[in-house]
């Protein structure tokens, strides 16, 4: 297939397969489907920082993956994907050094230069958490926790830079995003932990602000989709507001479900957490397998109103990814930036394909 994405024929050899992929059939035909389409990540510096990425419920097959990886290899992504980073190696905490180049600006306000925390002018606002702008966060959570998040970010960066493409979690999610994005869809992030209710705000800024553009650095107009539309509400609040759209709507909206196994507030023997996790697991299952009219009939009885019965039918075969980790901690939260990193990577891959 061509390595160029065009507005008239996006991923031309694959796009026609989208409507033919039935998730129920994929699972039924291959009992090892989950194990083949999931990956575990363990941080190099701390084995307790780990998570499971389950992308087996995405409407994508191994032949499609092979074609997509061949496509990005033709674009020399393996040689250039390190350029995605905005921070120099080896560790981002170097950004917290005093900045001498802005000393003149500081002097205008008669501020002693030794009191200045600076960062390089190429650090964008949405990435400034990792720079000296993170000082306010450090003062709130303490430097120990801030350092832990920097180390977690370094670990996922190292994984991104060194892991083979097929085992590279940010690249895997980026390829899936490239597939969905150029089939004209959006994505919904679903964090099942109230501590992450601001996750979507960060993703909005990090990705839709950074990559939501139509002109390249070379001043050329793009002829491909640059970014996914991202939207999110934490936990079960989303279930009561728009999940019906995910399950029964006319638009296919891929969802990313994220959840920690343990809670920082284990009330009543973590009963609340177990209930919340049951929602987390059942949503992705219901999106895949749906509910047939026969199943609805058994639930409500054969004498039920036909309109009621049909309104409860869920077609299934709706795509999602799941990211599951033991406990939300500063280093783990940095791994959550995997989602932002893969989205930015996906935009970069799209740029390389043109």
TrEMBL record:
**Top-level division of the source organism's lineage:** Eukaryota
Signal sequence span is none
GO term, biological process aspect, one: glycolytic process
Q: Does the keyword Isomerase apply?
A: yes
The record's section on CDD domains has: SIS_PGI_2
Q: Which UniProt keywords apply?
A: Gluconeogenesis, Glycolysis, Isomerase
Instruction: Give a single Pfam family match.
Output: PGI
Q: What class of enzyme is it?
A: isomerase
Protein name listed in UniProt: Glucose-6-phosphate isomerase
What organism is this sequence from?
Answer: Heterobasidion irregulare (strain TC 32-1)
**Which taxonomic lineage is given here?**
Eukaryota, Fungi, Dikarya, Basidiomycota, Agaricomycotina
């Amino acid at each position: 297939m061509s390595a160029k994405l065009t507005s008239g024929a996006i991923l031309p050899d694959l796009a026609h397969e989208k409507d033919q992929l039935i998730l129920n059939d994929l699972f039924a035909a291959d009992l090892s489907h989950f194990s083949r389409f999931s990956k575990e990540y363990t941080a190099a510096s701390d084995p307790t920082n780990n998570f499971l990425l389950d992308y087996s419920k995405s409407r994508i097959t191994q032949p499609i993956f092979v074609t997509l990886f061949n496509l990005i290899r033709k674009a020399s992504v393996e040689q250039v994907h390190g350029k995605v980073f905005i921070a120099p190696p080896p560790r981002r905490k170097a950004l917290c050094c005093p900045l001498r180049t802005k000393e003149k600006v500081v002097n205008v306000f008669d501020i002693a230069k030794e009191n200045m925390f600076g960062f390089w002018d190429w650090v964008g606002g949405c990435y400034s958490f990792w720079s000296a702008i993170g000082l306010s966060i450090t003062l709130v959570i303490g430097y120990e926790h801030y350092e832990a998040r920097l180390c977690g970010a370094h670990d996922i960066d190292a994984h991104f830079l060194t892991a083979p493409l097929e085992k590279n979690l940010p690249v895997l999610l980026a390829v899936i995003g490239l597939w969905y994005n150029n089939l004209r869809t959006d994505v919904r992030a679903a964090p099942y932990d109230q501590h992450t209710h601001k996750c979507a705000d960060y993703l909005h800024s990090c990705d839709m602000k950074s990559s939501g553009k139509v002109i390249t650095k070379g001043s050329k107009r793009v002829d491909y989709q640059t970014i996914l539309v991202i939207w999110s509400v934490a936990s079960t609040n989303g279930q009561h507001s728009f999940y019906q759209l995910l399950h029964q709507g006319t638009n296919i909206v891929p969802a990313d479900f994220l959840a920690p196994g343990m809670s920082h507030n284990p009330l009543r023997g973590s009963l609340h957490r177990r209930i919340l996790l049951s929602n987390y697991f059942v949503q992705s299952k219901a999106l895949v397998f749906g509910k047939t009219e026969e199943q609805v009939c058994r639930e409500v009885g054969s004498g039920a109103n036909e309109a009621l019965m049909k309104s409860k039918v869920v077609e299934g075969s709706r795509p999602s990814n799941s990211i599951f980790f033991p406990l939300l901690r500063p280093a783990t939260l940095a791994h959550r930036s995997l989602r932002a990193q893969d989205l930015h990577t996906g935009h970069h891959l799209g740029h390389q394909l043109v």
